[in-house]
């Protein structure tokens, strides 16, 4: 029965690990746990270094700290339910907790895209208008951009997540992942979900797709400026500051595109492929970002060495 009150009394949802591989769950949990620990250590260290080292108190590193914070939060949001399913086969999740988890996961995906966009703006200003860099990217402007990116992510996810509380769930309660995703929960509702189908498509177009277009456009302008620099050494130096960011952008958008293609065209692919791809999407960028920045950024390398040698 569809009442005006949230459907709290209904049976809890059941999370799913790797169907058919339940016996191997304890073994599968080992690489998962190792990746989770590296993500927490890598991103936690980045945030600590940027906070602690005065040489890293620059807009570029503030945005990097935001990226690390986003990766850290999304990992802490998925980790408890994934490890509970793999370790002790604890599959039940209450509706409220499930919707909240989906809300945080999806919001942070949009935040991550926004932070990558802000980072490309930072590189654009640094390379195309270097004399105005300090006056353009002041601390207050960096804070405003950061707040804008976070607000965009969290506000844009309210419309599709809110109806989930009111939908009746009368048939299956089994979700296809070890964490809650909007598209997964929505399919279990015994209600008209047209809005919940259409809204995410529009949202993805206006966030991920638009962000990616602006990032590409900003790099076209950056390349144009760099090619106009006379000395080869200066050119290399300018491009080097962009390599880390380009790598993170590629890691993020390639996993987004990969996941989309698997969902759209991989109808006949084994279910395990779909599930593995969604884990890659949530774990690969947070795992790679600290590695990319510590390999490619001299100041962060110096900061790490300083931290170790103290």
Automatic annotation (TrEMBL):
One of its GO terms (cellular component) is plasma membrane. One of its GO terms (molecular function) is G protein-coupled receptor activity. Pfam families: 7tm_4. It is a multi-pass membrane protein. The chain crosses the membrane at residues 33-50, 62-88, 100-121, 142-166, 198-222, 243-266, 272-293. PROSITE patterns: G_PROTEIN_RECEP_F1_1 (PS00237), G_PROTEIN_RECEP_F1_2 (PS50262). This is Olfactory receptor. The lineage of its organism: Eukaryota, Metazoa, Chordata, Craniata, Vertebrata. The gene is LOC101841423.
């Amino acid at each position: 029965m569809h009442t005006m009150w949230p459907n709290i009394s209904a049976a809890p949802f059941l999370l799913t690990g790797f169907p058919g591989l339940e016996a191997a769950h304890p073994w599968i949990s080992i690489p998962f746990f190792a990746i989770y620990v590296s993500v927490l250590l890598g991103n936690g260290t980045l945030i600590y270094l940027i906070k602690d080292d005065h040489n890293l108190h620059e807009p570029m590193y503030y945005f990097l700290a935001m990226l690390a914070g986003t990766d850290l939060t999304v990992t802490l949001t998925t980790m408890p339910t994934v490890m509970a399913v793999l370790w002790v086969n604890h599959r039940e999740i209450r509706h409220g907790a499930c919707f909240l988890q989906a809300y945080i996961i999806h919001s942070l995906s949009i935040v991550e895209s926004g932070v990558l966009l802000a980072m490309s703006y930072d590189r654009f200003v640094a390379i195309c208008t270097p004399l105005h860099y300090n006056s353009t990217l002041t601390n207050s402007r960096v804070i405003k951009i950061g707040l804008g990116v976070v607000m965009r992510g969290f506000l844009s996810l309210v419309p599709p997540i809110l109806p989930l509380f009111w939908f009746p769930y009368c048939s299956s309660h089994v979700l296809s992942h070890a964490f809650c995703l909007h598209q997964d929960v929505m399919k279990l509702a015994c209600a008209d979900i047209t809005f919940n189908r259409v809204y995410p498509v529009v949202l993805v177009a206006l966030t991920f797709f638009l962000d990616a277009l602006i990032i590409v456009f900003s790099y076209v302008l950056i390349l144009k400026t760099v090619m106009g620099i006379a000395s080869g050494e200066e050119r290399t130096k300018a491009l080097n500051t962009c390599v880390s960011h380009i790598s993170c952008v590629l890691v993020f958008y390639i996993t987004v595109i990969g996941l989309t293609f698997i969902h759209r065209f991989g109808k006949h692919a084994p279910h395990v492929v779909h599930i593995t791809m969604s884990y890659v999407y949530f774990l690969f960028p947070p795992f790679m970002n600290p590695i990319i920045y510590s390999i490619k950024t001299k100041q962060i390398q110096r900061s790490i060495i300083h931290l170790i040698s103290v």
